[in-house]
């Protein structure tokens, strides 16, 4: 279920925006002449066409659809007026429209087949601004010419000035509404996050089976553990389940990252799980992240950091030349930069017999610092990618194990930053304990939702969020409830009403007015009966099989 349904508000915004655009077109119709300057015709027709064909791509994605419909309604109307006035019928108007069609069509094609609607939204917002600014300049130029030619204002001139103000106001207003309504997310990149004990491992296995069955899926794993590495592999957890055993829990220093990737029709889809001991990640502060990254750079790339520092501190050209002589063409630089980049610097700087001017030395210094910055900045990219993290461990095994807490924090922060959709897990045991005398369940949920609220605040509105309550079988008998039935949806509403008693959850409800946030209740075993006792061995064995219930809702949200 969607926590806050903004459909009515979105429809009102679109209708108001379309009305403003009609007012603008009604007043500005006479300005769009077939004999306008060729450059104005070329650029405006290009922008209008680009926005129309870009909007078609936005309509194909759920979170971008409202903005796409709004764009189409406004700019198809503008296109009709420009066509009727002959503005688009000139050779430059036609060229501009065709070029815009090709660019907007390409961006829609790229966004759809790469599931990257965030780039399309950025592009569309930018072009709405260009349209607004260019149109304002065009109208200002024409009106300025007109008012300069008159010696004194008449009643008709006053009326024209009033209409000009209305026209400009309506243009700025509907452009602002368009920019506010256009949104897009990196839809292929989904991150599942939850505290220790929230059911991540079993949910991972349930979604993995779905990926293999329906999305031509494959897995990629990175596991850091002193004694648990084999047990944390997906294959080992599947074997454990087949043998009637629960997957082993992570130790405090364990880090396991799982990337499931596949294809939903022609679009790439992927889900990332980060499984860890549940610590080191309470405070997702940007300053702390920057400090952590800087510390890890000095740890993993100490030679690159040192070389950059001494180059920047070198005061004279001769000092720079001496430093370059010590590094260029040596194995040290190859180790720091890699063979390709080191060869590039050597080619530029030359060898001992090369005669170099001050300009040559300065150029070599700037190029080397640029390559060192590229190397250092690449650490953040590596921390967001499983293969990159594996490379860091392969080349820095001792340091990696020693600073695992900082690496976990940086990895999780980077996943939050880059993911387009984020799924928060809530342990169903907290729901079971919600009304206990000691308020254990409720207290845990107050803290948990406070953490999730902070994360949504810090990582912005250009994402979709889902709160997924696991272990629904612990508090509801699901054996006779179909996944898509009214009764199943009633369970979600019941849980939602319960959560609304928690002030920190109400914060999230308020955020849902501007950010898409969903709530789902799921179970990896619909055959379990509620409140099973740990000592009931037979039922415990039964509970170890995967019979997912409403896990498909996570897939619908994700893909």
TrEMBL record:
Top-rank taxon: Archaea
Stretches that traverse the bilayer: 7-32, 38-60, 67-83, 89-110, 122-141, 161-178, 190-208
InterPro entries given in the database record: P-loop_NTPase
Keywords carried by this UniProt record: Membrane, Transmembrane, Transmembrane helix
Protein's name according to its UniProt entry: Uncharacterized protein
Organism of provenance: Methanosarcina acetivorans (strain ATCC 35395 / DSM 2834 / JCM 12185 / C2A)
Source species taxonomy: Archaea, Methanobacteriati, Methanobacteriota, Stenosarchaea group, Methanomicrobia
